[in-house]
Amino acid sequence: MLYKLEIENFFSIRDLQILDLTVDAKVPDPEGRYTPVFEGADVRVPKVVAFYGANASGKTTIIRALEFIVSMIRDSVSRTIPGFTGIERFNDVESANRRIRIAIELGGAMNLNPEVHQRAMDGEKVEQGNYRYELEIELHDGLAVRIASEALRQKPNGQGKWQRVYERDAEGRVKDSKTFSLSGFQHLVKTLAPNHTVLSSFAKFQHPTAQLFVNAARNAFFQIEPVHSFVDHEVIDYLRNQPNVVLRLKDELSRIDVGVEGIRFQQTENGPPLLLFKHAGLASEMPWTMESHGTRAFIKMFPFIITALDTGGFVAIDEMDTAIHPNMLPELVRWFYAASGRNRLNAQLWLTCHSASLLDYLNKEEIVICEKDREGRTHLYSLMDVKVRRDENHYRKYLSGAYGGVPNLG
After folding, report:
1. pLDDT, tens digit, for every residue of 144-193?
2. Regarding beta strands 2-8 and 260-266, do their DSSP bridges make them parallel or antiparallel, or are they unpaired?
3. CB burial of residue 46 (10 Å; 0-12, 13-18, 19+)
4. Mean pLDDT rounded to a whole number for the chain
5. Most buried by CB count within 10 Å: which residue of 18, 43, 94, 294?
6. What is the pLDDT of residue 408?
């Protein structure tokens, strides 16, 4: 489970921002909103985290930072030209040559290798603990040129000092460990590109431990407007090849009462198949283009959500409330609570939104506020970091400006 994110010199985030989501064991949890950071841990983490703030406060920046580090783990080896995509430094003179730094901490099985992974999959108890993955990007005159530092460390049982899994410096030198041996893979170090991560590069050439971490990263899904969201033809193509997803989608659309009773594809002679919707009370089926913006928005995010729930993965959705009815949004959030029966594998959902009404359904541990100061710098904090009573009306307090993160008018 992901429980900490650190970001520095990334888009509107200038100074180091640390988001620590750990929840004390004493906090009551009748609905199953929290889950242990790792199996057997006393410290827990929310399954749902909602980011609030005024427009351009940096909510999307947080999701982008996480998406960037995940994509570097997963896909950087496929990049064939120098440099990086998806990153910008903070726009001031001092930051033009400061490193971009992003780090994540999460729980998992220690000393990970295929044998340990298989034992865990078989239900056998294996040693658990915390992982920390950190990536630093070197800048020259504002241009990202190479990975300056990359490190993966572990902390068995969440106690003691961080132990090296591997470390990589700006020259591409890699220090290994028993957990992440370079034996048989030394030649990859010599050809390691300055914009490729060790995990991504080594996984491509079947390093067993690297493959496990990269496969885990493939269970993280991002819908960031507009770059990473499904466009119409993509979602139609996806659904056409996923009949089981279509069946589940039809059931959910019927249940949430948008009037859809059926979904089917109709082949055309010269073009792509049509996605048609049968509505109660209508004589003929309606094409995708005639569906409401809200229904189409729900359909676009549905594959991300159910895949995360099915795999115990992670999903981040930017502006989740833009086209979703305020009554529907809490229902989607509840899917991730244990009480719903849908989230047996402890998937996590991060979302950015403006819908203050959702705050009535969230605990303070699930709420993060983003603010931008007069110099354009984003700051973020959890409501756990400020004095907030558990029985407070979050909706009323937020709109009154007591928590921050609301526009200053006038």
Report:
1. 999 999 999 999 999 999 999 999 999 999 999 999 999 999 999 999 99
2. unpaired
3. buried
4. 94
5. 43
6. 73
What does the alpha-carbon distance between residue 307 and residue 302 come to, in Å, rounded to a whole number?
Answer: 8
Count of structural domains, the chain: 2
Annotate 296-326 with three-state secondary structure: HHHHHHHHHHHHHHHHCCEEEECCCCCCCCC
Nearest of 217, 110, 216 to residue 153 by alpha carbon? 110
155/277 same-domain check: no
User: How far, in whole angstroms, is CA 197 from its chain's centroid?
Assistant: 19
Residues 93 and 241 in one domain: no
DSSP 247-273: HHHHHHHHHTTSSEEEEEEE--SSSPP
Q: Which residue has the tokens 């504002």?
A: 142
- 276-285 pLDDT, tens per residue? 999 988 999 9
What is the token pair recorded at 135?
A: 């990536």
SS3 assignment, position 2 = strand
Show contacts of 36-41: CB within 8 Å, 24+ apart.
36/1, 36/107, 37/1, 37/3, 37/106, 37/107, 37/130, 37/158, 38/1, 38/107, 38/108, 38/128, 38/129, 38/130, 38/158, 39/107, 39/125, 39/128, 40/128, 41/107, 41/128, 41/158
Do residues 44 and 193 both lie within one domain?
A: yes
Tell me, yes or no, whether 312 lies in a domain. Answer: no
Helix then strand count (H, E) for the chain reads 10, 18
Is the Cβ–Cβ distance between 330 and 280 less than 8 Å? Answer: no
- The parent domain of residue 79 ranges over 2-219+347-399
Q: Which among 50, 45, 39, 38 is positioned nearest to 24, based on CA atoms?
A: 45
**What Cα–Cα distance (Å) separates residue 228 from each residue in 300, 304, 308?**
11, 11, 16
Closest CA to 90 of 405, 373, 381, 408: 373
Q: Specify if 277 maps to a domain.
A: yes
Residue 258 has a CB neighbour count (10 Å cut-off) of 18
Give the number of other CB atoms < 10 A from CB of residue 401: 11
